[in-house]
């Protein structure tokens, strides 16, 4: 049982390039999330999807877009990468969006923008 | 754990000893708390959770204590093992805003063999 799978694991981009980070979960979870993790800071929510067909902005959505492709897959797109977007990106999922629902995380995508 | 610039608080523990990791949470309205473990190069892994109607909850080798009066959460790890070396962080959320989970910056636990 793979859980949450993220691809790629590492990526280097030049400023202005675009790319899509992929995430898939096999736990039949309804809710999915994208976070970024920067040194010395807690995880910050970029976007989330409460259920298939819905997406909402989190704490730091600027410069990103998301697509909930189906129940399993939730992608994060950087349209025009900036050095400030250098970070580790984590995808997570939970059974539902709500009280008492721990999130399960992938192993992250380490993204560097030059 | 509290953020100290770019450096995480660090706790060093001898193998076999008990570890206590602390977390001061930010919102008095938070009513659900989770502890995560993050090993180097990996994503956060759920350890244990606790709801605000409880003061203590035990898992396998781990105990979480909640003190709502002072907004403090602690994670106790019994008989700490080298495999426990990781960053541990707490997360808080509340029923009225369940889409918003606040994650702390974490504490780095180093186990000395």
Largest sheet properties of chain B: 6 strands, mixed
Helix content of chain A: under 10%
Distance, first to last CA of chain A: 36 Å
Greatest chain-chain interface?
A: A-B, 27 and 30 residues
Main beta-sheet strand count, sense and barrel state of chain A: 7 strands, mixed
Write the layout of secondary structure elements.
The complex is a heterodimer of chains A (114) and B (113).
Chain A: E1 4-7, E2 10-13, E3 19-25, E4 31-37, E5 44-49, E6 56-57, E7 64-68, E8 74-78, E9 87-94, E10 104-105, E11 109-113
Parallel strand pairs in A: 2-11
Antiparallel strand pairs in A: 1-3, 3-8, 4-5, 4-9, 5-6, 7-8, 9-10, 9-11
Chain B: E1 10-14, E2 19-24, E3 32-38, E4 45-51, E5 56-58, E6 62-67, E7 72-77, E8 86-93, E9 102-103, E10 107-112
Parallel strand pairs in B: 1-10
Antiparallel strand pairs in B: 2-7, 3-4, 3-8, 5-6, 6-7, 8-9, 8-10
Explain the overall architecture.
The complex is a heterodimer of chains A (114) and B (113). Chain A has 114 residues and is an all-beta fold. Chain A has no helices and eleven strands. In chain A, strand 7 and strand 8 form a beta hairpin. The mean pLDDT of chain A is 93. With 113 residues, chain B is mainly β. Chain B is built from no helices and ten strands. In chain B, the strands form two sheets. In chain B, strands 1, 3, 4, 8, 9 and 10 form a six-stranded mixed β-sheet that branches. A four-stranded antiparallel β-sheet of chain B has the order 2-7-6-5, with no helix packed on it. Chain B starts with 9 loop residues before the first strand and ends with a strand. The chains are: A mainly beta (114), B mainly beta (113). The A-B interface holds A 4, 39-45, 48, 50, 56, 58-59, 90, 92, 97-108 and B 3-8, 31-32, 34, 36, 41-46, 49, 51, 89, 93, 95, 98-106.
Which descriptors apply to this entry?
heterodimer, A: 114 residues, mainly beta, seven-stranded mixed β-sheet, 48% strand, B: 113 residues, six-stranded mixed β-sheet, four-stranded antiparallel β-sheet, 10 strands, 50% strand, disordered N terminus
